[in-house]
Amino acid sequence: MSNTIFAFGLGIGSQNKEGNWLEVFYSAPSLNVEKNTLDALLESTNYEGGNNTLVLDESDLNRLHMNLLKAGNIEQAELASRLKASTKPVILCVLATDEAPTNPAEVYLKLQLISHRLVKPHNTVLDGMFGLLINTAWTSEGPIDVRELAERQLSARMEGRTIEVFSVDKFPKMLNFIVPTGIRVGDAARVRLGAHLAEGTTVMHEGFVNFNAGTLGNSMVEGRISAGVVVGNGSDLGGGCSTMGTLSGGGNIVIAVGEKCLIGANAGIGIGLGDRCIVESGLYITAGSKVAVLDENNQVVSTVKARELSGQSDLLFRRNSATGAIECKTNKTAIELNEALHSHN
Ligand SMILES: CC(C)(COP(=O)(O)OP(=O)(O)OC[C@H]1O[C@@H](n2cnc3c(N)ncnc32)[C@H](O)[C@@H]1OP(=O)(O)O)[C@@H](O)C(=O)NCCC(=O)NCCS
Fold first, then answer.
1. Residue 337 — pLDDT band, cuts 50, 70, 90?
2. Comparing C-alpha atoms, which of 253, 252, 254, 222 is closest to residue 235?
3. Looking at ligand 1, which atom is closest to the CA of residue 283?
4. What is the pTM (predicted TM-score) of this model?
5. What is the DSSP annotation of 147-160?
6. So where does Mg(2+) get bound (predicted)?
7. How many domains does the chain divide into?
8. pLDDT tens, 278-304?
9. CB 338 near ligand 1, within 6 Å
10. Complete DSSP assignment for 160-178
11. Residue located nearest, by CA, to atom 15 of ligand 1
């Protein structure tokens, strides 16, 4: 057996009536776990190696507490001790290797590794995750299997309560699981679990960040970061702008935005951007769009498909307001982020 494992988490699970897992909350998921901690898991629980998910009882947690203390892993030892008081099932999910997930506990661990900034988007295998998750109502009374919701709503009403339903989805908003340091989010519902919000990110109310996607540094997000899209340090997404994902007919280009870019309000990109690029407000650049490349005197030097410019730096894209043609020029004015706007204190 290898000396280190990919990740593990001690979590609290929620189940439907049939005992299937709806979600698992890991307060402190761990990445690249050292041998000492791995030995503590092996000695304290029924974990015998590989990728495995177990429900722990109080004696497991007692042993885990003692052995993790001996292993010098104080944070996880204290968590194991704390979880003895949980009234909900306590789960140990161990991922010896980063394989495609096989159960909801593994999916939730991986999504939380990203949101805890332990793993960057695209750096863990999430293949097939949607098929493993149960469609769930995320409510004021916790997660409820959507097939059980009507009955629960009736029961609650009979007791004089209203169950507030926040969303019906395979997984919920990120901030109910982790609020990373140094961020602001105008509307929690707009950031999905599995988003990666770097220190210095502001997501305003119109902004949206999907799972396995997000920011790598300072960023003002007033547009949509689709699944898989990663935005570099110092780049801003203007109000209502769109970054094309690969999930529904968006093609197979995984969109990345480099550093210090500005995607204008209501603009959109179906190609990647390098560093210091600007897309004019309102312009949607799809990969196949024909783009006139202009020289310093605004003369057309060539016409190319936008995908040929994907990922290149120092470009300014605009739609010529007189001719309607999409044009690309050298961007001479790299944007400077407004310091006050990006302060998170
Ligand atoms: C594309 C953009 C960056 C251009 O701004 P700019 O570099 O300041 O350029 P200017 O508006 O000063 O225009 C420079 C010249 O280009 C011309 N021009 C600008 N946009 C043009 C267009 N779409 N078609 C034809 N000419 C255009 C101007 O008329 C001007 O011509 P001149 O030199 O003859 O006077 C800007 O229009 C834009 O869309 N910014 C995005 C802002 C935004 O959405 N922020 C997010 C808020 S939430």
1. very low
2. 222
3. 39
4. 0.93
5. GGHHHHHHHHHHTT
6. 206
7. 3
8. 999 999 999 999 999 999 999 999 999
9. no
10. T--PPEEEEESS-BGGGT-
11. 298
